[in-house]
Amino acid sequence: MPGDLRQPAFVLVRPQMGENIGAAARAMWNFGLDRMRLVSPRDGWPNPASAAMASGAGRLLDEAQLHEDVAGAVGDCDLVFATTARQRGLTKPVYSPEEAMKAAADRLAEGGRVAVMFGPERAGLENGDVAQANAIISVPVNPEFPSLNLAQCVLLCGYEWRRASGRIEARREELAGAQWASTIEVEKLAEHYEQRLDEAGFFFPEHKAASMQLTLRNLWSRMPLTSEDVRTLHGILRQMVRWKERG
């Protein structure tokens, strides 16, 4: 059965090709969305051509709700978005996909129900469809080539939903089994280099030595070092000293 109710339903209005329905299902499931609704698919339903394109997301096709019209597909929702790239001459708020999915997440958190409508491949939603929505989602595409493939638009909105629902890490460090160096490890590394550099006469002239040491300490603390990095830098310096002593 469909998963968490706190997610928007994606409504494909009069989709024309089974392959595009399958691709849309795959795009939805990429981002954890599994509430698909279909309004009068041109080639009927179920459509065998959709299964191959779903590529592992066939469950969404099996559980998709079939409706005769838009009113039936979105009738249980209290916030409905219509995706369109064209000006419609209708007085409605227009959201970017990012802001629309934030609004969807807020409404769902309040216990509401949300639907996002996507139009047929050839020309998109009709004005009569858009009139039944509360707001419009407009993708900031190239105005000279605004047409998006159905699955592309579904994918884009699915991604923004994933972001809005807090399931995307904005950034992370891949340490590959390593650990960040502790403060004391970095301190010991700084002391090692200061000692050897002092022996080599690096801190010259003497009245600038303290400033030069401070600059180096700041450099070490600013570098994102792992424990392995610290051991490597110690080893490099030891080997350089051994090489000099052999000479």
Main features:
247 residues, alpha/beta, elongated, seven-stranded parallel beta sheet
Would you write up a description of this structure?
The protein has 247 residues and is α/β, with parallel strands linked by helices. Helix content is 46%, strand content 11%. It has 10 helices and 7 strands. The protein has helices at 18-30, 48-54, 58-63, 70-74, 97-109, 127-130, 150-164, 183-199, 209-222, 227-246, and strands at residues 9-13, 36-39, 65-67, 79-83, 94-95, 114-118, 135-137. Strands 3-2-1-6-4-7-5 form a 7-stranded parallel β-sheet. Strand 1 (9-13), helix 1 (18-30) and strand 2 (36-39) form a beta-alpha-beta unit. Helix 1 (18-30) packs parallel to helix 2 (48-54). The protein is elongated and about 85 Å long. The chain starts with 8 loop residues before the first strand and ends with a helix. The model has no long low-confidence stretch (mean pLDDT 91).
Helix and strand content put the structural class at alpha/beta
Strand content: 5-15%
**What's the total number of strands?**
7
Q: Any idea what the shape is? A: elongated
Unreliable parts: none
Helix content: 40-55%
Biggest beta sheet summary? 7 strands, parallel
Chain-averaged pLDDT: 91
SSE series: EHEHHEHEEHEHEHHHH
With strands numbered from the N-terminus, the spatial order across the biggest sheet is 3-2-1-6-4-7-5
Taking all Cα atoms into account, the compactness measure Rg is 29 Å
What is the CA–CA distance across the termini? 76 Å
| Number of H- or I-type helical stretches | 10
